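Suppose a colleague, Dr. K., hands you the sequence of a protein chain of 301 amino acids and asks what its three-dimensional shape might be. Before reaching for any lab equipment, you can write down a predicted structure in token form. Begin with the sequence itself:
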Amino acid sequence: MNMNTREMTSSELQNLTWGKRHPVRSRLLDAQLWSEFLAINNEMIVTKTGRRMFPVIKTQVTGLCPGDMYTVFLEFVQVVGQRWKYINSEWSPTTTSDPATKNPFYKHPESPNFGKHWMDQPISFAKIKLTNRPDNPGQTHLNSLHQYETKLHIVKVGDPDDVQIFAMPQTRFMAVTAYQNEEVTKLKIKYNPFAKAFKDTKVKVEEKDRREHQDVYQPALGYESSLNFSYQENYNATTSDDWLSQYGGQREPVNRCQCTACYFVKPQVNHKKCVVINSSGQDYEHAAYQPSSYSWTQLGG
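The predicted structure, expressed as tokens, is then:
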């Protein structure tokens, strides 16, 4: 072996691989996530100011010549010419046909660049913003209520005939100004890390509602501590009577009806749902006084 023979650099090895004319290939990353959205007819928001896509389109490319320059585009292909409508929980094409429009192209902001650059890391289109206004510079204009899917274009600089095009049908989606399918909304919240603020806001609103409910329906003093029992089929009536005695004995004299309808409002004349407060209690204002037992239905007022 010749000792003067030097080891080839990684760049030279890549060029040697390219010399074998390996085909250029592209693979959509997060394909499983895209498939989940595709199964429920994915939707993407388009706004006047522009909205980023989720999931984000990311691809891994191989087979480019490391030393050549390439420009990368993402094409948004309109699937059909008709508008769509969301009726009865599903998307259906309408009979309305819009004039054919030129498919919009998004040029990757890192273009042009060396083949090595495109192959060393995934090609991410996280900076795309979708808009429904044609006069927004730097943003991709899509027509609302139309269906699109994307194609990746890799064009060799200086040779416009050397173009590699890769279809990505998994990325098909409906352009909308507001989500129509609730399942799409749930999936976006579940997987989108930027939806955390929305989830936190929802939790705060629920917590606020819970506190307001407690303020309005504040239980009597000692109620929670006395209500330490489990719901069982064979509940002990004696224990129930003891609890009722504690519950009623904290407020007004026993000569007032202590059922919930009377307890929280005012005594009801000729009220039929009266319950025992203790062994000595007697209520003379009610004609139908029950001296020995009660039921949970009666406690409901």
